[in-house]
Specification:
2 domains; 8-stranded mixed β-sheet; two-stranded parallel ribbon; globular; binds iron/sulfur cluster
């Protein structure tokens, strides 16, 4: 399945996820990745799946659900801009549904003009920026060998100049990796060049790829907030209901969401009880 959710998102409200990427193909191998280690580190763009299969999944979702969705979000089990069809898929969504489209990307290949053009029709792009220097970039994001910090940053600067939608930058703060004064000052300089509409600070609250990755202490997060400016923080779990993807079977609903989006125990229990109530109401 390419479509999952809707899931409650701290930034996007009720977000219907679309993953056009096989698990886990990415141009980065971030130390904090919640999807664990990258299986295939690549920069080459590909059509990983027939486009029709992805749009059939979307059609099926909207036929079965009258869900009130805030965003259709291209996210993925890896880096969604590696999908060659992403531009075509965004345009198709815009033509068929009156729902804003968001892209969550690591921003690594925005230096490629074709990638920027592909994202042109989306409403919001949420790129990552976890470093302000080559050394920290390599340490935290562990990019494909052909990606360097300077090109990655230039891609974001070029995006800002060409793109008319919103850019919400996300900085993942990792204890003792990118939260020193000098690292934060470097990140701030990069942000000043990009001029995003919003910047979020995020922390690794979900199980990371590397077990030694830790959330900075609150004092460090506040300090980062001061250095980076007036930012919104993403330092807590999301709240709200997960969609059941037309499923009234708790096991398949939980497995479908879990394969793309981490679930806490209480969230899984809440899904289970909603499936139970659904079955009971159908039996009446
Ligand atoms: S860019 Fe995203 S998917 Fe890729 S390794 Fe980093 S956190 Fe994981």
């Amino acid at each position: 399945m390419f479509v999952y959710g809707p899931v409650p998102s701290r930034r996007l409200g009720k977000s219907l996820g679309v993953s056009p990427i096989p698990s886990k193909i990415c141009s980065y191998n971030c130390i904090y990745c919640q999807l664990q280690k990258t299986k295939k580190l690549q920069i080459k763009r590909e059509s990983f799946f027939p486009r029709e299969k992805i749009i059939n999944d979307l059609k099926e979702f909207f036929e079965k659900n009258k869900a009130d969705i805030d965003y259709i979000t291209f996210v993925g089990d890896g880096e969604p801009t590696l999908c060659n069809d992403i531009g075509w898929l965004i345009d198709w969504c815009k033509q068929h549904y009156q729902i804003p489209v968001a892209i969550i990307t690591n921003g690594s290949i925005l230096f490629n003009k074709e990638v920027r053009r592909d994202l042109d029709q989306s409403n919001v792009i949420i790129p990552s920026l976890d470093a302000g220097s080559e050394d920290v970039f390599k340490l935290i994001n562990r990019p494909h060998r052909s990606i360097n910090f300077k090109d990655m940053l230039q891609g974001l600067v070029d995006l800002r100049q060409e793109y008319s939608g919103k850019i919400w930058l996300e900085v993942m703060l990792v204890d003792n990796v990118n939260d020193s004064n000098s690292s934060l000052t470097d990140i701030k300089k990069a942000i000043n060049l990009i001029q995003p509409d919003r910047v979020y600070i995020s922390v690794p609250i979900r199980p990371p790829a590397e077990p030694w990755v830790k959330v900075p202490v609150p004092e460090k997060i506040i300090h980062a907030h001061e250095i980076l400016g007036t930012f919104r923080e993403l330092t807590d779990y999301e709240s709200g209901e997960f969609g059941l993807n037309s499923s009234n079977d708790a096991k398949s609903a939980i497995l479908n969401i879990c394969s793309r989006h981490p679930l806490r125990e209480e969230q899984a229990k809440e899904i289970e009880s909603r499936c139970y109530l659904f079955i009971k109401s159908e039996m009446r």
